[in-house]
Here is the input.
Amino acid sequence: IGGFEGNAQTLRLLTRLEPKVIRADGTPAGLNLTRASLDAACKYPWTAPDAPVIHGHRTSKFGAYEDDLPVFNWLRQGAPAGRSCLEAQVMDLADDISYSVHDVEDAIVAGHFQLKWMDNPDHRARVVGYTQQWYLPHSDPAAVDAALARLEATDVWVREADGSRKAMAALKNMTSQLIGRFCLSALETTRGIYGTDPLTRYAAEMVVPEDTVTEIAVMKGLATTYVMTSVHRQPIYERQREVLSSLVQQIAAAGDRHLEPMFAADWRQADDDDTRLRVVIDQVASLTDASALALHERVVGPVPALW
Here is the structure.
């Protein structure tokens, strides 16, 4: 039925699943946002079949399911094909910056690694390798290493955090200062090109210097190396996939029996099995970790203790 994609699900939430406004015919209008607001939330302004080919590979990211094409076409009316508006570019960069910096802080606080480990050539090579593999596949390893060195040279870099309040304060300061460093770089570069004119919708592009792009990627690479790809996390990720898959299968097989009232109503109004399956996925996608586990225990059975 077109798979699942978090960004496409966001559009679905904003325009139909989150109940705030109901049309005269009884169908939901979601939060009833403006075209500009929805366009600003559209990080990947294309459907899966129209996804662009980047470096020889078609990207798996997309911003709308086929089922949501009417509202997607409306919000993209008059917009250049495949191009995100400036507000969406700002949102995308803010997302990248916040996750890249906070994931490193969280990993250090959780005891997964210390930044002083980068003194070890093997650790450093792993970080450079994962940064390239996951985020900058066509970059020069020397450029990635140089970006890491620039970050290490800042006076806010916390080489070792011992869990004390002083160390935690230093980590918070590092996070704040790096966020400022990355944001200011993009702001000054973009303004340097476009001047002081209003920069809205399609009047400009967000310009992020290559050095800053690489530094952000290095921060992501640090978290990837010591959290995302760590051996002890893989069984947990696999169990999470099993829980979600079994939930979808069992709920779909039971009709509307296990669906919440709103989703049950959508299920009964659906015209075919594909639409009904999408309704089941809508409910599962709305769950928190805790509610997913509780529903799994009720519908399928207890989740083994590995979780």
Q: What stands out?
A: The chain has a mean pLDDT of 93. The CA atoms of residues 105 and 295 lie 32 Å apart. The chain has twelve helices and two strands.
